[in-house]
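Researcher: I'd like a candidate sequence for this fold, 334 residues long. If you have to choose between options at a position, lean toward the conservative one.
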Protein backbone atom coordinates (compact mmCIF):
# COMPACT_ATOMS: atom_id res chain seq x y z
CA UNK A 1 0.00 0.00 0.00
CA UNK A 2 1.10 3.58 -0.61
CA UNK A 3 1.24 4.46 3.07
CA UNK A 4 3.65 1.61 3.81
CA UNK A 5 6.03 3.02 1.23
CA UNK A 6 5.88 6.38 2.98
CA UNK A 7 7.03 4.83 6.25
CA UNK A 8 9.85 2.82 4.70
CA UNK A 9 9.87 -0.27 6.96
CA UNK A 10 13.24 -2.05 7.05
CA UNK A 11 14.74 -5.11 8.67
CA UNK A 12 16.87 -3.06 11.05
CA UNK A 13 15.60 -2.22 14.54
CA UNK A 14 13.53 0.97 14.74
CA UNK A 15 15.39 4.07 15.91
CA UNK A 16 14.01 6.34 18.57
CA UNK A 17 13.25 9.99 17.84
CA UNK A 18 16.73 11.08 18.98
CA UNK A 19 18.39 8.53 16.72
CA UNK A 20 19.29 5.99 19.42
CA UNK A 21 18.53 2.41 18.49
CA UNK A 22 16.88 0.11 21.03
CA UNK A 23 19.05 -2.41 22.84
CA UNK A 24 19.15 -5.94 21.48
CA UNK A 25 16.42 -8.07 22.93
CA UNK A 26 14.24 -5.09 24.01
CA UNK A 27 10.60 -5.42 22.86
CA UNK A 28 9.78 -3.12 19.91
CA UNK A 29 6.28 -1.67 19.44
CA UNK A 30 4.83 -4.15 21.92
CA UNK A 31 6.41 -7.19 20.33
CA UNK A 32 7.98 -9.99 22.35
CA UNK A 33 11.82 -10.22 22.44
CA UNK A 34 13.33 -12.20 19.60
CA UNK A 35 14.40 -15.71 20.63
CA UNK A 36 17.85 -17.00 19.65
CA UNK A 37 18.15 -20.15 17.52
CA UNK A 38 21.12 -22.12 16.21
CA UNK A 39 21.77 -23.70 12.85
CA UNK A 40 19.64 -23.87 9.72
CA UNK A 41 16.38 -24.23 11.61
CA UNK A 42 17.29 -21.22 13.70
CA UNK A 43 18.01 -19.14 10.57
CA UNK A 44 14.68 -20.05 8.99
CA UNK A 45 12.88 -19.35 12.23
CA UNK A 46 14.58 -15.95 12.57
CA UNK A 47 13.61 -15.06 8.98
CA UNK A 48 10.00 -16.02 9.61
CA UNK A 49 10.08 -14.09 12.88
CA UNK A 50 11.43 -10.97 11.11
CA UNK A 51 8.74 -11.20 8.43
CA UNK A 52 6.06 -11.57 11.09
CA UNK A 53 7.41 -8.57 13.00
CA UNK A 54 7.48 -6.42 9.85
CA UNK A 55 3.91 -7.37 8.98
CA UNK A 56 2.75 -6.64 12.51
CA UNK A 57 4.61 -3.32 12.56
CA UNK A 58 3.09 -2.41 9.18
CA UNK A 59 -0.39 -3.26 10.41
CA UNK A 60 0.16 -1.18 13.55
CA UNK A 61 1.39 1.78 11.50
CA UNK A 62 -1.59 1.46 9.18
CA UNK A 63 -3.90 1.50 12.18
CA UNK A 64 -2.16 4.57 13.62
CA UNK A 65 -2.37 6.39 10.30
CA UNK A 66 -6.07 5.60 10.02
CA UNK A 67 -6.64 6.93 13.54
CA UNK A 68 -4.37 9.92 13.07
CA UNK A 69 -1.82 8.82 15.69
CA UNK A 70 1.28 8.91 13.47
CA UNK A 71 3.12 11.77 11.83
CA UNK A 72 4.35 11.22 8.28
CA UNK A 73 6.23 13.39 5.80
CA UNK A 74 4.43 14.21 2.56
CA UNK A 75 5.36 16.00 -0.64
CA UNK A 76 3.56 19.38 -0.43
CA UNK A 77 2.70 19.14 -4.12
CA UNK A 78 0.44 16.18 -3.30
CA UNK A 79 -1.67 18.22 -0.88
CA UNK A 80 -4.68 20.31 -1.91
CA UNK A 81 -6.48 23.00 0.06
CA UNK A 82 -9.70 22.39 1.95
CA UNK A 83 -12.88 22.71 -0.09
CA UNK A 84 -13.88 25.59 2.24
CA UNK A 85 -11.64 28.65 2.41
CA UNK A 86 -11.47 30.15 5.90
CA UNK A 87 -9.10 33.07 5.36
CA UNK A 88 -9.28 36.33 3.45
CA UNK A 89 -5.60 36.30 2.62
CA UNK A 90 -2.51 36.65 4.80
CA UNK A 91 -0.33 39.74 4.90
CA UNK A 92 2.95 39.03 3.06
CA UNK A 93 5.05 40.16 6.02
CA UNK A 94 3.15 37.82 8.36
CA UNK A 95 3.65 34.85 6.05
CA UNK A 96 7.32 35.76 5.59
CA UNK A 97 7.77 35.66 9.36
CA UNK A 98 6.29 32.15 9.50
CA UNK A 99 8.59 31.02 6.69
CA UNK A 100 11.61 32.32 8.59
CA UNK A 101 10.50 30.67 11.83
CA UNK A 102 10.21 27.30 10.09
CA UNK A 103 13.60 27.79 8.43
CA UNK A 104 15.16 28.49 11.82
CA UNK A 105 13.36 25.94 14.00
CA UNK A 106 11.70 23.47 11.65
CA UNK A 107 8.02 22.58 11.47
CA UNK A 108 6.98 22.20 15.11
CA UNK A 109 3.30 21.37 14.60
CA UNK A 110 2.06 18.92 11.94
CA UNK A 111 -0.84 19.77 9.68
CA UNK A 112 -3.96 17.60 9.47
CA UNK A 113 -4.91 16.07 6.12
CA UNK A 114 -7.23 13.41 4.80
CA UNK A 115 -6.89 11.18 1.73
CA UNK A 116 -8.34 13.17 -1.15
CA UNK A 117 -11.95 12.04 -1.67
CA UNK A 118 -11.72 12.30 -5.47
CA UNK A 119 -8.06 11.85 -6.45
CA UNK A 120 -6.13 8.74 -5.47
CA UNK A 121 -2.67 9.38 -4.07
CA UNK A 122 -3.42 12.98 -3.11
CA UNK A 123 -4.45 14.61 0.16
CA UNK A 124 -6.65 17.47 1.31
CA UNK A 125 -5.90 19.85 4.18
CA UNK A 126 -8.20 20.13 7.17
CA UNK A 127 -5.96 22.69 8.85
CA UNK A 128 -2.44 24.03 8.44
CA UNK A 129 -2.79 25.95 5.17
CA UNK A 130 -0.24 28.62 6.17
CA UNK A 131 2.31 26.03 7.25
CA UNK A 132 1.77 24.15 4.00
CA UNK A 133 2.35 27.33 1.96
CA UNK A 134 5.49 28.12 3.97
CA UNK A 135 6.95 24.64 3.46
CA UNK A 136 6.16 24.81 -0.26
CA UNK A 137 8.18 28.03 -0.40
CA UNK A 138 11.05 26.48 1.55
CA UNK A 139 10.94 23.35 -0.60
CA UNK A 140 10.82 20.69 2.10
CA UNK A 141 8.39 17.93 2.95
CA UNK A 142 5.41 18.54 5.21
CA UNK A 143 4.89 16.81 8.53
CA UNK A 144 1.28 15.72 8.58
CA UNK A 145 -1.22 13.57 10.40
CA UNK A 146 -3.47 11.62 8.04
CA UNK A 147 -7.00 10.86 9.14
CA UNK A 148 -9.98 9.42 7.33
CA UNK A 149 -12.43 12.31 7.67
CA UNK A 150 -15.79 12.86 6.04
CA UNK A 151 -16.74 16.40 4.99
CA UNK A 152 -18.46 17.20 8.28
CA UNK A 153 -15.51 15.98 10.36
CA UNK A 154 -13.11 17.97 8.20
CA UNK A 155 -14.90 21.31 8.61
CA UNK A 156 -15.34 20.77 12.35
CA UNK A 157 -11.61 20.04 12.70
CA UNK A 158 -10.79 23.04 10.52
CA UNK A 159 -13.01 25.41 12.47
CA UNK A 160 -12.04 24.20 15.93
CA UNK A 161 -8.31 24.43 15.19
CA UNK A 162 -8.76 28.01 13.98
CA UNK A 163 -10.76 28.84 17.11
CA UNK A 164 -7.98 27.44 19.28
CA UNK A 165 -5.46 29.69 17.53
CA UNK A 166 -7.80 32.72 17.73
CA UNK A 167 -6.18 34.27 14.65
CA UNK A 168 -9.24 34.51 12.41
CA UNK A 169 -11.05 37.84 12.38
CA UNK A 170 -14.79 38.24 12.86
CA UNK A 171 -15.54 38.61 9.15
CA UNK A 172 -13.40 35.57 8.25
CA UNK A 173 -15.30 33.42 10.74
CA UNK A 174 -18.63 34.83 9.56
CA UNK A 175 -17.76 34.20 5.92
CA UNK A 176 -16.57 30.67 6.77
CA UNK A 177 -19.92 30.00 8.48
CA UNK A 178 -21.88 31.36 5.52
CA UNK A 179 -19.92 29.29 3.02
CA UNK A 180 -20.57 26.18 5.08
CA UNK A 181 -24.29 26.92 5.13
CA UNK A 182 -24.28 27.52 1.38
CA UNK A 183 -22.76 24.05 0.92
CA UNK A 184 -25.60 22.47 2.86
CA UNK A 185 -24.03 21.95 6.29
CA UNK A 186 -26.47 22.14 9.18
CA UNK A 187 -26.41 24.97 11.70
CA UNK A 188 -25.51 22.40 14.38
CA UNK A 189 -22.39 21.37 12.47
CA UNK A 190 -21.39 25.00 11.90
CA UNK A 191 -21.88 25.81 15.59
CA UNK A 192 -19.60 22.89 16.48
CA UNK A 193 -16.97 24.06 14.01
CA UNK A 194 -16.96 27.66 15.27
CA UNK A 195 -17.76 27.08 18.93
CA UNK A 196 -20.67 29.55 18.96
CA UNK A 197 -24.32 29.34 19.95
CA UNK A 198 -27.32 29.65 17.65
CA UNK A 199 -27.89 33.37 18.26
CA UNK A 200 -24.26 34.31 17.61
CA UNK A 201 -24.17 32.21 14.44
CA UNK A 202 -27.35 33.83 13.11
CA UNK A 203 -25.83 37.29 13.62
CA UNK A 204 -22.60 36.29 11.89
CA UNK A 205 -24.38 34.95 8.83
CA UNK A 206 -26.74 37.95 8.74
CA UNK A 207 -23.78 40.33 8.39
CA UNK A 208 -22.36 38.46 5.40
CA UNK A 209 -25.77 38.21 3.73
CA UNK A 210 -26.10 42.00 3.80
CA UNK A 211 -22.69 42.79 2.31
CA UNK A 212 -21.54 42.33 -1.29
CA UNK A 213 -18.91 39.58 -1.41
CA UNK A 214 -16.73 41.79 -3.63
CA UNK A 215 -16.52 44.37 -0.86
CA UNK A 216 -15.74 41.81 1.87
CA UNK A 217 -12.95 40.27 -0.20
CA UNK A 218 -11.56 43.68 -1.20
CA UNK A 219 -11.35 44.82 2.43
CA UNK A 220 -9.95 41.52 3.67
CA UNK A 221 -9.73 40.19 7.22
CA UNK A 222 -9.83 43.60 8.96
CA UNK A 223 -8.87 42.07 12.33
CA UNK A 224 -9.48 45.35 14.15
CA UNK A 225 -13.22 45.39 13.46
CA UNK A 226 -16.00 43.22 14.87
CA UNK A 227 -19.64 42.54 14.14
CA UNK A 228 -20.99 45.96 15.14
CA UNK A 229 -18.73 47.90 12.76
CA UNK A 230 -19.40 45.51 9.88
CA UNK A 231 -23.14 45.93 10.44
CA UNK A 232 -22.70 49.70 10.40
CA UNK A 233 -20.83 49.38 7.11
CA UNK A 234 -23.71 47.34 5.68
CA UNK A 235 -26.13 50.08 6.78
CA UNK A 236 -24.02 52.71 5.02
CA UNK A 237 -23.88 50.70 1.80
CA UNK A 238 -27.66 50.21 1.83
CA UNK A 239 -28.35 53.90 2.44
CA UNK A 240 -29.38 55.58 -0.81
CA UNK A 241 -27.99 52.53 -2.61
CA UNK A 242 -24.34 53.49 -2.25
CA UNK A 243 -23.17 50.11 -3.47
CA UNK A 244 -22.01 51.38 -6.91
CA UNK A 245 -20.00 54.12 -5.21
CA UNK A 246 -18.40 51.59 -2.85
CA UNK A 247 -17.56 49.18 -5.68
CA UNK A 248 -15.88 51.96 -7.67
CA UNK A 249 -13.86 53.02 -4.62
CA UNK A 250 -12.48 49.55 -3.80
CA UNK A 251 -11.28 49.12 -7.38
CA UNK A 252 -8.78 51.98 -7.08
CA UNK A 253 -5.07 51.12 -6.87
CA UNK A 254 -4.65 53.42 -3.86
CA UNK A 255 -7.28 51.45 -1.96
CA UNK A 256 -5.69 48.09 -2.77
CA UNK A 257 -2.29 49.30 -1.56
CA UNK A 258 -3.59 49.88 1.99
CA UNK A 259 -3.54 47.35 4.83
CA UNK A 260 -6.81 45.57 5.56
CA UNK A 261 -7.86 47.65 8.60
CA UNK A 262 -7.03 50.82 6.68
CA UNK A 263 -9.15 49.69 3.74
CA UNK A 264 -12.11 49.21 6.09
CA UNK A 265 -11.58 52.66 7.63
CA UNK A 266 -11.27 54.43 4.27
CA UNK A 267 -14.42 52.89 2.83
CA UNK A 268 -16.33 53.51 6.05
CA UNK A 269 -15.23 57.16 6.06
CA UNK A 270 -16.19 57.64 2.41
CA UNK A 271 -19.69 56.27 2.92
CA UNK A 272 -20.12 58.19 6.19
CA UNK A 273 -19.64 61.60 4.58
CA UNK A 274 -22.63 63.84 5.17
CA UNK A 275 -24.90 63.80 2.18
CA UNK A 276 -25.43 67.01 0.29
CA UNK A 277 -28.99 68.18 0.81
CA UNK A 278 -31.02 67.34 -2.24
CA UNK A 279 -32.17 70.18 -4.41
CA UNK A 280 -35.94 70.34 -4.65
CA UNK A 281 -38.20 72.56 -6.68
CA UNK A 282 -41.80 72.57 -7.78
CA UNK A 283 -42.81 72.92 -11.40
CA UNK A 284 -45.83 75.19 -11.68
CA UNK A 285 -48.14 74.56 -14.63
CA UNK A 286 -49.58 77.38 -16.79
CA UNK A 287 -52.82 77.07 -14.83
CA UNK A 288 -50.75 77.74 -11.65
CA UNK A 289 -51.22 74.22 -10.32
CA UNK A 290 -48.25 72.60 -8.59
CA UNK A 291 -48.28 69.53 -10.80
CA UNK A 292 -44.72 68.21 -10.43
CA UNK A 293 -42.12 68.26 -7.67
CA UNK A 294 -38.51 67.78 -8.83
CA UNK A 295 -35.85 66.45 -6.44
CA UNK A 296 -32.21 66.18 -7.52
CA UNK A 297 -29.22 64.46 -5.90
CA UNK A 298 -25.74 63.61 -7.15
CA UNK A 299 -26.98 60.25 -8.35
CA UNK A 300 -30.45 60.90 -9.75
CA UNK A 301 -33.32 63.25 -10.49
CA UNK A 302 -36.81 62.32 -9.32
CA UNK A 303 -40.10 63.69 -10.63
CA UNK A 304 -43.07 63.38 -8.27
CA UNK A 305 -46.44 63.96 -9.93
CA UNK A 306 -49.24 65.33 -7.78
CA UNK A 307 -52.35 63.23 -8.24
CA UNK A 308 -54.39 65.95 -6.60
CA UNK A 309 -53.16 68.87 -8.68
CA UNK A 310 -52.98 67.04 -12.01
CA UNK A 311 -54.81 63.70 -12.01
CA UNK A 312 -53.62 61.45 -14.84
CA UNK A 313 -50.64 63.62 -15.78
CA UNK A 314 -48.13 61.00 -14.62
CA UNK A 315 -49.71 58.35 -16.85
CA UNK A 316 -49.78 60.82 -19.74
CA UNK A 317 -46.02 61.39 -19.41
CA UNK A 318 -45.30 57.67 -18.94
CA UNK A 319 -46.98 56.86 -22.27
CA UNK A 320 -44.81 59.44 -24.01
CA UNK A 321 -41.45 58.54 -22.44
CA UNK A 322 -40.13 56.86 -25.59
CA UNK A 323 -41.04 59.83 -27.80
CA UNK A 324 -39.54 62.24 -25.27
CA UNK A 325 -36.33 60.24 -25.11
CA UNK A 326 -35.99 60.15 -28.90
CA UNK A 327 -36.56 63.91 -29.00
CA UNK A 328 -33.88 64.32 -26.33
CA UNK A 329 -31.42 62.29 -28.42
CA UNK A 330 -32.14 64.36 -31.54
CA UNK A 331 -31.55 67.61 -29.70
CA UNK A 332 -28.44 66.57 -27.78
CA UNK A 333 -26.90 64.12 -30.22
CA UNK A 334 -26.45 61.53 -27.42
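Model: Candidate sequence:
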Amino acid sequence: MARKNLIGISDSPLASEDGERPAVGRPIAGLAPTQRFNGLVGGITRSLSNITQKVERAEELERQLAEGHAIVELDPELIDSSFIIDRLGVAPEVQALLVQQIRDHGQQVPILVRPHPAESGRYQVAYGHRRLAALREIGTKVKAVIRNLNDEQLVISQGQENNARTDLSFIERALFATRLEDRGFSRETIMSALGVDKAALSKMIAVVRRLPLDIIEAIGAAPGFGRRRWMELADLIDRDDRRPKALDFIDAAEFKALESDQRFEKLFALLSLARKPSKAETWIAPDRSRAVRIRETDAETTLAFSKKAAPGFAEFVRRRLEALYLEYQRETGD
